Amino acid sequence: QVRLVESGGGLVQPGGSLRLSCAASGFTFRGYRVSWYRQAPGKDRELVAAITTAGLRIFYLDSVKGRFTISRSNAMNTVYLEMNSLESEDTAVYYCNADRYWGQGTQVTVSS
Fold first, then answer.
1. Residue 15 in contact with residue 74, Cβ under 8 Å?
2. Does residue 63 carry a pLDDT above 90?
């Protein structure tokens, strides 16, 4: 059974940090590009960051460049999203994606 399980979300003050994790199982994780998406209330889901199979190519949404870092451990079947200098505009449900597989999402709320 394919599973993507996100964790690490929560409530944080502006300027704070969070580290999201996405643990994969049930498929050959190392063979897939993996992405983080987010969806804020009333908005479309958007691609935040993506990393290729060996981590050699990385994409970031312009608004998170310099603040977010995506990484992966193929040995651990896990992808991470380190989020620093968080802003209220980063508030959303964050989803992990690999091809047609999606996680259930983890809520990130940035508020004072």
1. no
2. yes
CB 94 within 8 A of CB 81: yes
Say whether pLDDT at 55 is over 90.
no
**CA angle, 81 as apex, 40 and 34 as ends, to 5°?**
90
Burial class (CB within 10 angstroms; exposed 0-12, middle 13-18, buried 19+) of 82: middle
Residues 6+ apart with CB under 8 A from 32: 53, 98, 99
Q: Is 41 helix (H, G, I), strand (E, B) or coil?
A: coil
Strands 106-110 and 10-12 turn out to be parallel
Q: How many Å separate Cα 36 from the centre of its chain?
A: 3
